Amino acid sequence: MSIFLYLCHVKRDVRQHIIATASDLFYRNGYNSTGINEIISESGIAKATLYNHFKSKEDICLAYLQHKHNKFTHDIKAFCSSKSSGEDQVLAVFDFLSLFFKEKDFNGCWCIKTVSEIPKDNERIRNEIQSQKKQLIAFISELITKNLTIVSEKESESLAKQIYLLYESAVAESHLHQENWPIMQAKNICQKIV
């Protein structure tokens, strides 16, 4: 391996380490409650190293949101596709959420937590979160199209948005109540509408 490739690999690893550390802190403690110095300390890096990779806390937040979203997207797609074709693949979004809820560090939706902490005029972070939510709706719509006999694209899109709202409310309410029943009730409602 050339020295150039080695240095690129090391730089990418350091960047990923910073993102993983910031992700843990932002998700657990919140965006506003996590300072740059805490990220530096927890990462075990120098301040200059952090600023070599990120210009601002907002840039770290965007990387955090993308990091969480990429893992979530990969995991939910793999989980749903492992289920039997048909209604089971659509309902699997709630089974996936139930598993997510059971993780020891479950702390609700990272997007909703973040958007509740940013100023209303922070378009960069808000746009990233909106994009991620649109991608989730598109994924649900794709599940519907592949697994249910829906007459039109418009009906499929409408049903996807309904399921999305059930999913999002189940995330928030399971976090609030620290119980699984909101997820199970959302799945029951979903089963009636599909």
From TrEMBL:
<keyword id="KW-0238">DNA-binding</keyword>
<protein>
    <submittedName>
        <fullName>Transcriptional regulator, TetR family</fullName>
    </submittedName>
</protein>
<feature type="domain" description="HTH tetR-type">
    <location>
        <begin position="12"/>
        <end position="72"/>
    </location>
</feature>
<feature type="DNA-binding region" description="H-T-H motif">
    <location>
        <begin position="35"/>
        <end position="54"/>
    </location>
</feature>
<dbReference type="InterPro" id="IPR009057">
    <property type="entry name" value="Homeodomain-like_sf"/>
</dbReference>
<keyword id="KW-0804">Transcription</keyword>
<dbReference type="GO" id="GO:0003677">
    <property type="term" value="F:DNA binding"/>
</dbReference>
<keyword id="KW-0805">Transcription regulation</keyword>
<dbReference type="InterPro" id="IPR036271">
    <property type="entry name" value="Tet_transcr_reg_TetR-rel_C_sf"/>
</dbReference>
<dbReference type="Pfam" id="PF00440">
    <property type="entry name" value="TetR_N"/>
</dbReference>
<dbReference type="InterPro" id="IPR001647">
    <property type="entry name" value="HTH_TetR"/>
</dbReference>
